[in-house]
Task: structure prediction
Amino acid sequence: MKILFVSPLFPNTFWSFKYAIKFLRKKAAFPPLGLLTIASMLPHEWEKRVVDMNTNKLSNKDIIWADYVFIGAMIIQSESVEAVIERCRKYKTKIVAGGPLFTMNYDSYIDKIDHLILNEAEITLPKFLDDLEHNCTKQIYTSSEFADIKTTPIPSWNLVDFKKYASMSIQYSRGCPFECDFCNVTSLFGRKMRQKSSTKIISELNSIYDAGYRGAIFFVDDNFIGTIASLKRDLLPALATWRKNHPGISFFTEVSINIADDEKLMTLMREAGFDQVFIGIETPSNDGLAESNKKQNNNRDLIRDIRKIQKNGLQVQAGFIVGFDSDTEDIFQQQVDFIQESGITTAMVGLLQAPPGTSLYRRMEKMNRLSKTPSGDNADGSTNIIPVSMDLDTLVNGYKNILAQIYAPKNYYKRLKIFLEVYKSDSKTDNISMNRIMAFVKSIYRIGIIGRERHHYWKLLLWTCIKHPKSFPVAVNLSILGFHFRKTVKHYIN
Result:
């Protein structure tokens, strides 16, 4: 059996890091972890190829070669998915599809896909493979059960070229104990946390390290600290021990704001090699947080919490949302002021969207306030919700004004300095590779010589050399990220 795995194109977005990864001579930010894991679940004797369309072109020869094309995708990849489906149908190659896009919108693909492997593949894929062996396959395979991810195999890293990616990915847990009404994580993976053992994670890290990779690894968990006790007792000490004999590796992940309540947890994460965390801040408005069931953020001093996290050596990246029913027109400046004061350089701001499967989607559907299918891009200025607190033009223009302000060079570099004043850099996780040295050299020309922001760039680097020399690599990296954000924001607001 010949299997072609296809990861469709991601459009240029805030999180594609398209303009930043060029400084590192990379093609994409992350490898297709889901497809590589599926590849390990198929019979060993089958022939397998992976075409990540973000790093390589999908040729007609690839499609013709395959007995089946396996497509894994998220909503944001839907445009590319349609093109891939059309090409496969043209050559009469059968399609097997799974992932969040198909699980949440399977009825849109019934007439286009031969086999839909929905929900968690550890449960539904074996049923398909068994039916395939007995020549009695069905079109849809689904389950309401959640998998024991302790048995999930190590991804088939041999199918991709590490050199094309800016970072690698690994998964420790699934699920989230919180239930924000705009988030589809719990509808996909449940609220009960499931995690792998530290032994399992170390085996996966060894498979990446032994293949020659050195650099940042993203723990893709939707809330890495969903099981704090087992993290502190098991995984984080194991990671810290592993890294002593495996230099050149650092970690980053997604967490909830309650990480700020646990000094020991933050210390252990830093010792384990974590240097960045993404947090859903959403809004400085308690009314908006209450409306969205963001209980873990409500009635807290969020600026103080962010400072605590930064002081513990963890750079905070964050998501923000405007468009809650409780929002008034002053929310736009509130968001700008909060982001500037917090020193959060990587601030993803988007309009509120209601993904299928969420409680927000169901609520908006009952109120007849859904307008279209969500784009899947949290920052493209679109929404599938009909607003009530202000008209759509006011909402969109206010949103664009936030982006224009926070990513203006003057404000971005000011925010970067606020962060560096607080942040405690650790040379043990600041990996200085040849690629990063070359990225710095490129930044000198691209940002420091021909860039419109060159005055701010040189002023920051000089200030960092004098005041915080240990943070110089971080300052360079964030300057490059700022370049990407400005280019991307220009696309969003025009």
